[in-house]
Design goal:
2TM_dom, membrane, alpha+beta, 2 domains, about 130 residues, transmembrane, 2TM domain-containing protein, about 70% helix, transmembrane helix
Length: about 130
């Protein structure tokens, strides 16, 4: 990282300049922080919601007689919500960790190379079929 000096009204100011690779690393880190933040928010909302559902059923008597597959409705609701929360955890810590920005860039590069090879093949076929200057 290097610094460039700028003069404005006689005062010397330095602004950090970062290269493209560092910028991409920073963007990736910011994206991961946002993912984890959303996951933690999801967890807190899940806990509050689960407590609310339990209180609504047991203390307030909402849906006291409603049973689904022999279980109280709030147990099914919390179980479904837990499933979606675990799916969110899997996406943040497993899938995105291995299939993050670096994986996407590698896949993009691979597809670009394939496309360039196809274009070269088509150009070669065109040259063979219709040579220029005939």
């Amino acid at each position: 990282m290097y610094f460039k000096s700028y003069h404005m009204f006689g005062k010397k100011q330095t602004k950090p300049q970062i290269d493209q690779e560092q910028f991409e690393l920073i963007q990736n880190a910011q994206r991961r922080v946002k993912q984890k933040k959303r996951l933690y928010i999801h967890f807190v909302i899940f806990l509050i919601g689960a407590v609310f559902l339990i209180v609504a059923n047991t203390l307030l008597g909402i849906g006291k007689d409603l049973k689904i597959f022999g279980l109280d409705w709030f147990v099914i609701a919390i179980s479904l919500w837990l499933f979606f929360f675990l799916y969110h955890v899997f996406n943040v810590f497993i899938t995105n960790k291995f299939m993050g920005a670096a994986w996407e860039k590698a896949q993009l590069d691979k597809l670009v190379v394939k496309q360039q090879l196809r274009i070269e093949k088509i150009k070669a076929n065109l040259k063979q079929e219709a040579p220029l200057g005939s």
